Structures are given as structure tokens and as C-alpha cells.
């Protein structure tokens, strides 16, 4: 059962991978080190805010720009539990699923969640609950293949089995 | 119902007669690539999978082009990891400094990415190769690791958008302006998850360099891939350099498009994308003449090819770079560098007061070789102008074509090419 409960930290549309983790820090692959600089060009206080509010609630096209997997890695290592967006850029979407950072597109929920609201996200059933206001939002569950990748804990575990199975 | 070129390539690579937008498929890959930023992370993941070998050591390119020549110790360690892995697995297309070029300029030039191919790269601008009539898209490091182990990857078949350009392209309007203006019209998520198919009489007469520039920036509209049907110009480009067989695909006349955009470009102008989104474009004639600049960058996988350098040199010849401006020029590959040298372009740049860097992605992503300070402003022929893209979070990047960049370098402000006297 994948259910997360936490407080909302909000950002707007088109948050790109250059502000999520600037290229000047891409000389490492260490998650801890990357998380030190996560979002710093957008919000210098992100590191502190995320201690209290660890469900990101964001607008359209989150994660646009580069293919750097360092972006979802930095977010995950910062302590973010999951991300709810109006939409994700496609490479970020794949990367997040592949590394096991739970994400969900629920456009109608985003405008109805305020920063600091308490949120519950049920990934198995595609339900977002705003506990602070009592509102409930539903979305489509992931297609079976993607559910399988998520269930196995990411693409690497999925690959291990596929190789073992002779495929 | 007919299929688009994107659907046909994906169907053939997943052993299906037909595929439909939204369908999830596993596709066989003809070629895959990673660089010194995405590669090391992929190598770590590859090792976790436990595969003993890569799927095919002749269909993988490892290209240390981002932080090279190594900018610091940590980057040197990343490059070393790539190099060691390439040796261990006998990767045929590993390019060492001195022979390395910017990946998306290098691989087409080398004839390693070809019409009809299905390609992934751990770099978002992998969509560039669509210019050759290939399906090509950017992915992350874990996807690349998976592909390296298995030779395949999962895709959701994208819906296609068709962009038809007709009319006559005015002087100084390039492929860069076509794609920037297109992104200006549809927005940075206007093609999110979709295929952008570029066509029409204007595209049919465009040289390969402009086509590569157009497909390169499909990602800036959120697209999965950009693609142009191959034709005589494609054939002329690939024959003689192709390292493998290739196949020309065409869209059926009854193929299905989510949307068709048609534009007459006859009155289009060079455009400039203002900070901080590539969609924030303005025609050059509407821009005030007091946007003073500190740096001009001509290079990158978008506009670092020989044709781009020729345009810049044509404008710069006999002029000097403005005293308050630093002009940085990066030939995208060693071959382009050599051609520029033989054609006298390097001499023109040096006479004008420019600095020439080795082939590298450095300046474009604020890595090295031209990082911006707080409050500085640059005109760049690159692809992104996000906050902090070329350096300090309070610096600014204006995206333009090579002619606008060169004219701006001379005048010290954002300027149109026709403001400078061309001295032949």
C-alpha cells in the first residue's frame, strides 16, 4: 500500500531541471550532496521548508528541460515523499518512476491545495485527499506496465527480472 | 488509417504491424548514447542490474563533452569513470578529448545516427537526430542503463503534431528562428509528450544544419521527439558517412495528427527569446536598442555547426567585438574546428577579438568556459534561457540565431544583422 501523508509545499508552472539542480553541481552523483543544493536558485529556503512540508504540489510541466536524473534524485534525497502536479515534463516523469520517486498528475487538486495544507495521497487508488479542507480528488491509476515498474521498486529491479527471465 | 513516420518507425522496432498513440510498447534500439554527466550515474545503475555485458558494444556511444576538458577534480573523476567503463566493455564509440565533439553535432557527422533508426540518449537534446528521419528521444540515466543491458526500452507511442511552413524564408531568418517562433506560438509545454513533425516547402529546401537545429529544440516545447521526413537533402548528407544501413520512412497521407499548424513564413523575422523561457520570443525589429550585453556565445548542439560559424564570420569580418563584450565561439566538433580553420573563419573571429574554446557543452549549461556573473546578460545561440542556466541565478540569457548573436557582439547590445555592414 502506497499512502503518503504530509504537508503541502507549493511551486508554480514550468519549474525546470536547471533550478531543481543547477548544472554547476552536476559533478557528483551523490544524492546527499545533490540534495544540499536542491531548488536553491528558485527558493533558498527550500531545504528548511521541506523539513515540515514534504509533499510537493506544483503546476504545469514540472521538471522541464534537461534529462538529468540528478533532479528527481535531489528532490527525493531532500526528504520529499511525493509530488502532485498539474503535469510533468516527460523525461522527468520517466526518471521519477524509474528511481522510485512517487508522482501523480492531478490537475484539479493543485489549485485547491494551499501551501501548508495537510494532504494524503493514495497511489494505489489514485486519490488525493486535502485533509485541511476535506476535499477529495481522483485521478486515473497508472497503466499496468508502469504499475509493475513502481511495484518492483523502480526500473533496475524490473530489469533484473527481465534479464533473469531470458528476455 | 495511415500512420505517421514516428508511428511507422516505432511499429517496425517493436515487431508490430501498427501502433497507436497511447499504446505502451517495448522497442529495439539501433543506437544509444550518454555523456560525462549522465553516463556515470547510468554506469552505477547498470552495475546494480547485474548484467555482465552491454547489449552491443558497437551501438553505444559514450561521449565526455559536458565538463571537458575536465573543469575540476570531481568532473575528472566522472570522465574517468566513463573512460574506464568504455575500456572494460570495449565500447567502440568512446571519444577522448581532442577527438570528442558535442554529442549531437558529432554523431550525425560520424554517420552513427541514421534515417529510420530508433535511438535514445541520456541527454534531452537527443531529439536532434529526428532531422535525419529517425525516431530519437532523450531519457534519464536509469533508462539508459536499462537500454545498455537489454538493447530495448519502453515507450508510450506519442500523438503527432504537424507543423507546415510555407512561403519564402526572408534573409537572416534561419532554422533557429523557425523553431523559436514555433515554441513562441505553442509554448514550452505545447508539444508535451508528443511528436513534432516538421514539413512544408520551407523545410524541404532547408539544409541539414538548420533541420538539426529545429529538431534539437523540440524538447523546449516539451516534445518527445522532433522529426523531418528524409529526402534528397538527407540522402546527400548521409551517403558517404553512414556506418550502417538505413531506411527512409514517410508519413501516410491519411495519417492521424492531433493538430496541424500551418504558417506562411514570408514575413517572419529573426527572433530573440527573452529570459527565462524559450517561448518568450520577440521579433528583432520590436526590440529596443538599449539592451546592453556582457557576453555573446556562439556554439552548442543547437548552433555550433560550420554553417552557423560561417554566418557569424560573415557578419564579424572586418569588425571588432564591442569593448564591453566578451565573444566566445565554440566549434561543436574537431572536424568543424578544422573546417573553420581552413576556411579562415577562426582568423576572422580572432581578429574581431573573440575567444575560441575547444568543442564542449560547457558555456551553454553554465558549466565552464564562460560562466556569467551576477547581473550579467548574454546573447547565446543555445537552447535554454532558464534561471541560472549559464551561471549566476541573477544573470540573463537571450536566445538568438548566429547572425543576431554576431551583430550583438559588435554593437554591444541586442542588434539585428542588418545594423552591421557586411564587408565581403
TrEMBL record, chain A:
The keyword Lyase applies. It holds the Pfam family Aconitase_C. It catalyses: (2R,3S)-3-isopropylmalate = (2S)-2-isopropylmalate. One of its GO terms (biological process) is L-leucine biosynthetic process. Its EC number is 4.2.1.33. Catalyzes the isomerization between 2-isopropylmalate and 3-isopropylmalate, via the formation of 2-isopropylmaleate. NCBIfam families: leud (TIGR02084), LEUD_arch (TIGR02087). This is 3-isopropylmalate dehydratase small subunit. It comes from Dictyoglomus turgidum.
From TrEMBL, chain B:
[4Fe-4S] cluster binds at residues 301, 361, 364. NCBIfam families: hacA_fam (TIGR01343), IPMI_arch (TIGR02086), LEU2 (TIGR02083), PRK00402.1 (NF001614). Residues 7-288, 289-412 form the Aconitase/3-isopropylmalate dehydratase large subunit alpha/beta/alpha domain. Binds 1 [4Fe-4S] cluster per subunit. Keywords: 4Fe-4S, Amino-acid biosynthesis, Branched-chain amino acid biosynthesis, Iron, Iron-sulfur, Leucine biosynthesis, Lyase, Metal-binding. GO terms for biological process: L-leucine biosynthetic process. Its EC number is 4.2.1.33. It catalyses: (2R,3S)-3-isopropylmalate = (2S)-2-isopropylmalate. Gene3D superfamilies: Aconitase, domain 3 (3.30.499.10). Belongs to the aconitase/IPM isomerase family. LeuC type 2 subfamily. It comes from the Bacteria. Pathway: Amino-acid biosynthesis; L-leucine biosynthesis; L-leucine from 3-methyl-2-oxobutanoate: step 2/4. Heterodimer of LeuC and LeuD. It holds the Pfam family Aconitase. PROSITE patterns: ACONITASE_1 (PS00450), ACONITASE_2 (PS01244). The keyword Nucleotide-binding does not apply. GO terms for molecular function: 3-isopropylmalate dehydratase activity; 4 iron, 4 sulfur cluster binding; metal ion binding. Catalyzes the isomerization between 2-isopropylmalate and 3-isopropylmalate, via the formation of 2-isopropylmaleate. Its cofactor is [4Fe-4S] cluster. It comes from Dictyoglomus turgidum. This is 3-isopropylmalate dehydratase large subunit.
